[in-house]
Design a protein that fits this description.
367 residues, alpha/beta, Rossmann fold, eight-stranded mixed beta sheet, four-stranded antiparallel beta sheet, globular, binds iron/sulfur cluster
């Protein structure tokens, strides 16, 4: 049985958004037979107002699927989602649309995610029309304000998207995402396609918008260096599951899981002397086929520290000194928690965003 992961790693402060035991499954074919791939497997997390939670991992780890599942852009195969205390798991139609305005997304590649033949006023103004029925001069005025907020001249309203550079297009995407005042913005590799100097400018813009609007960010990235500076907490994902979660500084300076250590060792360091002294952990072996049933620790085929027990017993999430937890048999031996938390499966009482009313608590599991 897969151990369940804690929904919160530190305290029970109220959450803006929470996912409990979220699973996303794809139908696929193997050797001509239909089979199911668990791209996200019983993942739980909570996000506080104004907080940034980064989800990092290699390509194919399931982090983008997790983001889409959390926003209900993909159907979930199990689990519960809560926004501002209301369960949104089974909402449909208008009720879902109303909740969606609180959760927006910025995608990786502004060249493919934004229609190049659209004008800025149409693109940024679309959510204003759909959700607020704003049209004409009022919509145009609001789009000009939004452009100003993201560092573009308000006079750009009538220009076409294809006239802008990659960094400017990502500013347009951000303006569209914040147009209807969401509380949560999911940034799916939002700076990965940009050069380093443009990346920094966009990250500064995101930080400023977060301060001004008290936004929460779910920051999906393969780049641990970027994550360290922008995220309050970091979750490390491997084969559809979180393997380590904790305050970003602790995860970067004192990683507890061998996979996190390997990811960090592959990060280049600007100082050539320090870079020369570093030992890169090269992961030998292949990840298991995600279509296979995995026994024991899913990382054991690549783990430099694997032991006999790792082949037969899946590790439980264990608290780590400095905050957070890691799912590794070695952690209880090496990491001591300041406040041990054994209740890894929270009760409804503990979920920081409980359903607002009995009616809201009824859950429909979408498949
Ligand atoms: Fe490595 Fe075992 Fe820890 Fe898994 S449980 S990460 S195989 S040491």
């Amino acid at each position: 049985m897969t151990p369940r992961t804690p929904i919160l790693d530190e305290d029970d402060a109220p959450a803006l958004f929470a996912a409990q035991d979220l699973s996303v499954v794809f139908d696929t074919r193997r050797h001509g037979k239909r089979t199911r791939l668990r791209a996200v497997d019983d993942v739980s997390f909570a996000l506080r107002q104004g907080e940034t939670l980064a989800v990092v991992g290699e390509s194919g780890s399931g982090k983008s699927t997790l983001a889409r599942g959390a926003l209900r852009l993909l159907p979930s195969a199990g689990g519960h989602l809560y926004l501002r205390g209301k369960e949104i798991t089974g909402l449909r139609g208008r009720a879902l649309r109303e909740q969606r305005r609180g959760m927006q997304m910025v995608f990786q590649d502004p060249y493919s995610s934004l229609d190049p033949s659209s004008t800025v006023v149409n693109l940024v103004g679309e959510p204003l029309t759909v959700h607020d029925r704003l049209t004409g001069h009022a919509r145009r005025r609001r789009v000009a304000e939004l452009l100003d907020q993201v560092g573009l001249p308000p006079s750009a309203v009538d220009r076409y998207v294809h006239e802008f550079s990659g960094g400017q297009r990502q500013r347009i995407a951000i303006a569209r995402a914040i147009a209807i005042d969401p509380a949560l913005v999911v940034l799916d590799e939002a700076v990965s396609a940009l050069d380093v100097s443009t990346q920094n400018q966009i990250l500064e813009l995101l930080a400023e918008l977060q301060r001004r609007k008290d936004l929460s960010y779910l920051f999906i990235s393969h780049n641990l260096a970027v994550v360290r500076w922008v995220a309050d907490r970091t979750a490390v994902m491997y084969l559809g599951r979180f393997v380590e979660v904790g305050p970003s500084e602790r995860v970067h300076h004192h990683p507890a899981h061998p996979y996190t250590r390997a990811l960090l060792s592959a990060m280049p360091v600007p100082d050539p002397v320090v870079q020369k002294q570093r030992r890169r952990i090269v992961l030998a072996g292949d990840p298991p086929d995600p279509l296979d049933v995995v026994t024991g620790c899913p990382f054991r085929t690549r783990c430099p520290d694997a032991m006999d027990v790792c082949a037969v017993q899946a590790p439980e999430p264990a608290p780590v000194e400095g905050g957070g937890w890691a799912a590794c048999h070695l952690v209880p031996l090496t990491g001591a928690a300041s406040r041990p938390r054994t209740d890894v499966t929270p009760t409804m009482e503990e979920i920081p965003c409980r359903p607002a009313s009995p009616a809201a608590s009824s859950t429909t599991r979408s498949t």
